[in-house]
Amino acid sequence: MVPPPTPDTVFRGPNGIRAGWRVLIFLAITAGLVAAVNLVVYSILHFVLHRPHHVAIASSLSPVTAVLSDGAIFVFTGLAALIMGRIEHRQWGEYGLPARFAFRSHFWIGTLIGFLAISASLFAIFALHGFHLDGLAIHGKTLLTATAAWTGAFILVGLGEEFAFRGYLQFTLTTGMGFWPAAILLSALFGLAHAGNPGESKVGLLSVVCFALLFCFILRRTGNLWWVVGFHAGWDWGQTFFYGVSDSGLAPYHNLFNSSFSGPVWLTGGSVGPEASVFTPIVLLIVGILASRVYRENRYRPLGG
Length: 305
Prior knowledge:
single chain, mainly alpha, two-stranded antiparallel sheet, 4 strands, 5% strand
């Protein structure tokens, strides 16, 4: 005899553990991993190195800070998703980063488009006499090491931020509330996560939300996060390292070019950088329209449909 189906409860639904509970378990696991690592680091600093335990908020961005922050985010959320995959009987790649597509065509296309997008935004500011390149900022061996360091760092930034907000959480909330309600909620949280950056503004945060919504749209059309990770890395690499401008209010370090802005905040973005310029949402809209012409089908199917 076939056993009768398990009745729906507050904790379980037709697709297993309900989405809200899965999200809470995922967040609890992530928080536990963070707390465990912090405890280890605190113990080392206190008992071995005898150094202060507070961490200052950086006002500039370097490859080391990017790797430590976003690399840690990727590790913690990735491990939590791996554990949840065992609980849910799913493969880790179902949450947005399938290994078979890693660093293949979608990633490199996204990287190129991301770099071209930040270039287009800055060119528009330049055309209105608001942006200028002032020559190389680094030379010789530093140029090579900085290029390699920033490239690796921004790949980790793309992986960490995209998986944290559009990986497991987007997958799971989609199964519970639908794709776009989940995307809007997580995009708002993505904006709030940037609110603590020094020099950030309300206009800059609105632009961050625009980025998030574009990334959700691309995820829906391509079926995974690799294009989005590439775009995120390409935009940040071009913005921070190549052009040497502020990224969400964070000043660059060991950037390729020195640059300067002049003109009203609506044009230049002010302390935030070009992400708060009026041209960035326009560029993102153009990217979204072009992507909709190239990727015509919705390939993101968390429920297998």
